[in-house]
Specification:
Layout: H1 11-15, H2 22-25, H3 27-52, H4 57-88, H5 94-113, H6 117-138, H7 141-145, H8 151-176, H9 180-201, H10 219-249, H11 258-286, H12 289-309, H13 315-341, H14 347-354, H15 356-376, H16 383-402
Helix pairs in contact: 3-4, 3-5, 3-6, 3-8, 3-9, 3-10, 3-11, 4-6, 4-14, 4-15, 5-6, 5-9, 8-9, 8-11, 10-11, 10-13, 10-15, 10-16, 11-13, 12-13, 12-16
């Protein structure tokens, strides 16, 4: 997923990217992240409630979400190596972007038109497969077309588009509800983004391909992978069960339904995360990056624990805002670590493997929570989401602490 990646991009920095427009290359990323912000953040849970009923909503969400995440992981592992092989023969990977966007748009429409939980699961799997046909190859688009010395500025555009897309998706889901109209808006955004990026990239020359193909391995990469995996396990537990939590927490006749309340929380989390990333930017460059990751994770874990035990509705936006700040701090150092351990060659392949630390938790998180709630007998009660948040807090804290197993030589410059 749905992963908010807030970054502050200055006007001066953007003006430096004039030879190759990173903004136009990143428009497709906005469309895909808009889809994730709406579907994974809000609509999947809400559609499970409508089609499976409140009594079976969390159970249905668990297996539907896990099935879709498994499809996403397998798709990236297949699409990445194929696109790398084509890239080495001079192909620009554009067919992956176009085909994935078209398939994803069709899957989104089917998702919002589904009349039963089985149809919803099939449609969600189609969406995951199609958009991950894009994502695996697309994560290599900047090294494909942008000079090495300008990758940082271009990456800022990608991160800004991701944050903006997640926020836009949450807003659309809140305003339009879980309707076919929302599906049409998401599909249009994905197709328009693909049209802009593909048409622009078609006329750009490719950068020289990296020759080094091997993937790095060893204890450092394993520990980084495990740390990131635990943090995202907690993140997807938080995002996945937020709507259920809001539904129980809102008092009668409050003026907002669960879908609207969840959408507002996701929007707040995303926007406040930008402030967290801005606050951590300089420390991430000057301090040990392990410290930045640990502090960000600890802040998120504390805020999620507050949600689990809070019984005052005023505490909800406060806890969400604190969690968003912590998430921005975490993300600020997370990408720096990735840049140090991933190879320059076989980039789409290595990114696909790296993303298992994100996609895997998206699959495992609902299965763990479903098993926990079944064990506690709270699947259909207000205590269920609270128990899920206790688990999420522990997972995020464990990931933040695990980062200290990494050697000090990976610290920031």
């Amino acid at each position: 997923m749905p992963i908010p990646s807030p970054t502050i991009v200055t006007r001066a920095a953007m003006s430096n990217a004039s030879r190759v427009s990173a903004a136009r290359l990143s428009v497709l990323w906005f469309g895909i992240q808009l889809a994730w912000g709406a579907i994974i953040g809000v609509s999947l849970q809400a559609r499970c409630i409508v089609l499976a009923g409140h009594a079976h909503a969390t159970e249905s969400y668990g297996w539907v979400s896990a099935t879709g995440a498994l499809a996403a992981a397998l798709t990236q592992l297949i699409a990445g190596p194929i696109s790398d092989a084509m890239r080495r023969r001079g192909n620009k990977r554009l067919a992956f972007y176009a085909a994935g966007a078209v398939g994803g748009a069709a899957g989104v429409l089917a998702f919002y038109a589904a009349s039963d939980i089985r149809g919803l699961a099939i449609a969600f799997a189609i969406v995951q497969v199609a958009f991950n046909v894009v994502i695996g190859p697309y994560q290599a688009i900047l090294p494909d077309f942008v000079e090495t010395e300008r990758i940082g500025t271009a990456s800022g555009w990608m991160a800004a588009m991701q944050s903006a897309g997640n926020a836009a998706g949450a807003v659309l889901a809140t305003l339009l509800g879980n309707t076919l109209l929302l599906g049409a808006a998401i599909a249009l955004a994905a197709l328009a983004g693909a049209a802009v990026t593909v048409s622009y990239a078609r006329g750009l020359p490719l950068q020289a391909v990296a020759r080094e193909q091997s993937l790095m391995h060893g204890r450092a990469l394993v520990d980084l992978f495990i740390s990131r995996g635990f943090v995202y396990l907690g993140f997807y537990t938080l995002v996945g069960y937020l709507l259920f939590y809001i539904g129980y927490a809102l008092p009668p006749h409050f003026g907002l339904n669960a879908t609207q309340g969840s959408g507002i929380c996701i929007l707040l989390f995303t926007l406040v995360g930008s402030a967290g990333a801005a606050l951590a930017a300089r420390p991430a460059d000057r301090l040990d990056e392990r410290l930045v990751v640990a502090v960000g994770g600890a802040i998120v874990a504390l805020a999620v624990a507050l949600l689990a035990f809070a019984h005052n509705i005023v505490a909800i936006p406060i806890a969400i805002a604190v969690a968003g700040i912590g998430w921005g701090v975490f993300l600020c150092a997370d990408w720096a670590f990735a840049c140090r351990v991933l190879p320059r060659g076989a980039l789409a392949t290595s990114m696909a493997i790296w993303n298992i630390a994100v996609v895997g938790p998206q699959m495992v998180a609902p299965l763990l929570v479903t098993a926990l709630l079944a064990r506690l007998g709270t699947q259909s009660s207000a205590a269920g989401p609270r128990h899920a948040f206790v688990l999420a807090s522990a997972e995020i804290l464990l990931g933040a602490l695990w980062i200290w197993r990494l050697p000090r030589r990976l610290r920031g410059n």
